[in-house]
Amino acid sequence: MKRIVTFGTFDLFHVGHLRILDRCKAIGDFLAVGLSTDEFSFQKKGRYPIYPFEQRMEILCALRVVDVAFAEDSFEQKRQYLIEHKADVLVMGEDWEGKFDNFGDIVQVVYLSRTPSISTTAIVETIRK
């Protein structure tokens, strides 16, 4: 069985999120998703997610392509998450290209292109206008 792990905030869940998760699942047999906690999201982006962690987790767990979801608290623990979830492949969006190549010693690292013209940041900006 090929185990895939990916990570994200998945706030204001949209079709781009769904498509990248579908593409992750197509790479292997089992998909584990690390969901950024509210605090970790704030550290990364300087703002808290619109939806709290528990609601984002509920959405992820309801998706048929997601086999398991878990809390991601920091960049420093990524290696441990990959080991704990017995990852064969780490999949990330192309906006992270090159940033996780150091895990190539334990997993295959794949960067996928993002869905054009859609992002949570763009949705938030549209709502604010």
Précis, in short:
With 129 residues, this protein is α/β, with parallel strands linked by helices. 36% of the residues lie in helices and 22% in strands.
Account of the protein in words:
It is a single chain. With 129 residues, this protein is an alpha/beta fold. The protein has a single domain, classed as 3-Layer(aba) Sandwich (Rossmann fold), CATH 3.40.50.620. It is built from five helices and five strands, in the order βαβααβαββα. The chain has helices spanning 15-27, 38-45, 53-62, 78-84, 120-128, and strands at residues 3-8, 30-36, 68-72, 89-93, 108-112. A five-stranded parallel β-sheet has the order 3-2-1-4-5, sandwiched between helices. Helix 1 links the parallel strand 1 (3-8) and strand 2. It starts with a strand and ends with a helix.
How many domains, in number, for the residues?
Answer: 1
Report low-confidence residues grouped into runs of 5 or more: none
Class computed from helices, strands and strand pairing: alpha/beta
* H/I helix tally: 5
- CATH fold descriptor: Rossmann fold
Q: For the record, what is the CATH homologous superfamily label?
A: HUPs
Indicate the CATH class.
Alpha Beta
Rg estimate, integer Å: 14 Å
User: What overall geometry do the principal axes of the alpha carbons give?
Assistant: globular
What is the mean predicted local confidence, pLDDT?
92
For the largest beta-sheet, the strand count, sense and barrel status come to: 5 strands, parallel
